[in-house]
Design goal:
The structure holds two protein chains of two kinds.
Chain A lengths: L11 H32 L1 H4 L3 H7 L5 H28 L3 E4 L1 H11 L5 E5 L5 H7 L7 E4 L22 E3 L8 H9 L3 E5 L10 E6 L2 E6 L1 H9 L3 E5 L2 E3 L2 E10 L8
Chain B lengths: L5 H11 L16 H5 L3 H15 L6 H7 L3 H11 L3
The chains are: A alpha/beta, B mainly alpha.
């Protein structure tokens, strides 16, 4: 993860403009400002290039205006999610569409008493989901690295809703392993992004993805096996302003044979 | 309190950690665990898992872990005082 940090591109003042618009006119007003802001980031080459690693794999042979459009679309969707997260924090309203079967599955897995690990990825409305995921009444932790320079607010920091989750920093000593295992021993729910790497290069496993090879963090699977904690994979596709799905893509229980 | 010998602890570490080129039997009780064995953050995870699986000990956080994992001797003492199996 060399060179990566979670610092926002815009200043605190610019974030506050969006928060003010949400307070005054809700999501629609903030989305109006989002259009030119996203256009700026999509048109300036230095900012647009940041989307190329994704665009060039997802939309092969894309050139010229199509590439700018895909960058605009990617940034706009991400901006919508951030507006949704802020709107949830400011108004307390959000709509999560979960199927009864998926909710039952998660509750059944949690009822095993070994904790529950929710794996997701940096796609869809994960920023909102991590704040609003509420169909298991239990302690919840998100493995989340927050730089001191971060200025965008988590939903609960807007003051309208209670802090539903606590954070475990994966860049802390031991990758947060002690904290994760302690939480699982209390039957807590751990939410983690399965696609972000931290710590030692030994903590990585290679996988094929979008025509290339990526390195994925493996230590969480090691912890799941050691604790007997079930793992459920959930994605959060956007379904419109302030609405998203929580869709279970799979679940598994690692055996001790798979530990190393 | 369940007596825990240094030999038992070293055996558990040998079995679960990657210690190529390190003669753990030659290390003294006050040898620094991480520097002495050349361990990294992934090994820290393994140590937490060893305590959980072998001795039913939960390390709450790495601030506590740092003290417990300071030396081989501190680790043995902590296990002896806190193990449940």
């Amino acid at each position: 993860m060399s060179g990566w940090n979670s610092k926002s591109a815009a200043s605190r003042f610019k974030h506050n403009i969006f928060y003010l618009l949400i307070k005054c006119g809700g999501r629609p007003l903030a989305s109006c400002l989002l259009v030119p802001v996203v256009a700026f980031y999509a048109l300036v080459p230095a900012w647009r290039r940041r989307a190329y690693p994704y665009i060039e794999r997802r939309f092969k042979n894309t050139r010229g205006l199509a590439k700018i459009y895909h960058a605009w679309r990617l940034y706009f969707c991400f901006g919508q999610v951030l507006i949704d997260r802020a709107a949830y924090g400011i108004t307390g309203r959000i709509k999560i569409l979960s199927s009864a079967a998926d909710m039952k599955l998660c509750r059944d897995l949690h009822a095993l008493g070994k904790g529950l690990i929710i794996l997701s990825a940096h796609c869809g409305a994960w920023q909102c989901a991590m704040s609003a995921f509420d169909f298991i009444e239990e302690e919840k932790y998100v493995i989340y690295r927050r730089d001191g320079a971060d200025i965008d607010k988590q939903a609960y920091e807007h003051g309208k809703i209670a802090q539903a989750v606590k954070f475990i920093d994966p860049s802390s000593a031991g990758g947060g392993a002690a904290e994760i295992m302690a939480a699982l021993s209390r039957n807590a729910v751990i939410c983690a992004m399965g696609d972000r790497r931290f710590g030692s290069a030994r903590n990585l496993a290679e996988a094929e993805f979008l025509g290339g090879t990526i390195a994925l963090p493996a230590s969480l699977y090691r912890i799941a096996a050691a604790c007997g904690a079930p793992v459920v994979i959930i994605f959060f596709p956007l379904r419109g302003a302030g609405r998203f799905d929580s869709r279970v893509a799979g679940h598994f229980l690692l055996t001790t044979k798979a530990q190393k | 309190m369940i007596p825990t010998t240094m030999a038992e602890l070293k055996e558990a570490l040998k079995k679960n950690l990657s210690l190529e080129g390190i003669d753990i039997d030659a290390l003294a009780d006050d040898s620094p665990l991480f520097e002495g064995l050349g361990l990294d953050s992934l090994d820290a995870i393994e140590l937490v898992i060893i305590l959980r699986k072998n001795y039913d000990i939960v390390i709450e956080n790495m601030q506590q872990g740092r003290e417990v994992f300071r030396t081989l001797g501190s680790l043995r003492k902590y296990i002896e005082e806190n193990r449940k199996k």
